[in-house]
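Progress against Task 2.4 (sequence-to-structure conversion) is shown through the following example record, which the project officer requested during the mid-term review.
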Amino acid sequence: MGRRLDLNAIQLQNFGGIDDLGRFLHAFVRMSGFSRVKTIGIVRDAEGSELGAFNIVRGALEYTSLPVPSATGQLAG
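Structure tokens generated for the chain above:
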């Protein structure tokens, strides 16, 4: 507790609606400077089904050839 976070190293992006996530990631990985990205975190509401929401995120990551975690709250890659 009480650790100071280096917030200068964090960038937030709005990807639009969940139907836009795959297209956003597809463009994001092709942006200048993407090679310096160390971690991507995706936060969204479950809209009734945590598993359904995770499967949509999983599909977007697979579409973009990014590593896919095995479950919500897990790291991959």
